[in-house]
Amino acid sequence: MLEPASTGPRDAVKPRTGGALIGADLPVRAAAGAVMMTLASGAAWAGGIWFEIFWGAAAMAVANEWTRLSRAGPLALRDNAGLYLALPLAAIFLRGDVASWVSLLIAAGVCAAIVSGGPRLWTWTAAGVIYAGSMLISVCLLRASSPYGLRVILWLFAVVWGTDIMAYFGGRLIGGPKLWVRVSPGKTWSGFFVGIVSGAAAGLLAAPESTRLWGVFAVGLVAAIASQGGDLFESAIKRHFGVKDSGHLIPGHGGAMDRLDGFIAAALVAAMIGAFRSGWGQMASGVLQW
Question: What is the residue range of 166's domain?
Fold first, then answer.
């Protein structure tokens, strides 16, 4: 999440020598994070309709927050009716491997969002549906792919959570030059590097026994970098609209977008790598089998 903006040009270049390892918000963040990890892991283990319901709801929350941000105000139910219908239906259709129907449903959601948003905001509104829909499609296709559908989701969790947690602690403990002050003043290069290496290493815990670990580590690095990029992307969107958090859904974290920004990017990149290497039906193998 965003921190207060810098007060002058010196803040952009003055290196930090390290700071408190535990921030004041850490207990709340940790508790909320533990609950979310438990729910996400449970949905992954259950698979099937429970997985689709969980991520369909997450996609709806992300799309709703994006739309609220772009319109700078609360939404009526009718404003996002297309999202509430298109995204969960897309998740269910993904189960049957009918990508053409999924594409049509996402397109219908985009059209409905454009109509409700009006001509002035149609670009932002449509982008929000695509943003949330890309996460939904990616995770559902990864989970449904064989033979490592569950394993690749657990790998994705390990990479993204490992990156996020260790970037937080690495940045606070080591400090140093800032990563991109204009977008996210609290992020440091030290946190970035500690995070991506730790995330890629954590992903090795989910690697199949028959694979080459260097390949899993390499794709983990790519996914971890994407995760950090997704975090910065969402921070840039919030700065554009002048808000600190995308919402208040999750204590200590803000909104669904604040919690899932890195995961959205990492899931999309992992799905693209898997599809490129092994095809749509075996995306998980394309990610984990080297």
Answer: 15-46+147-290
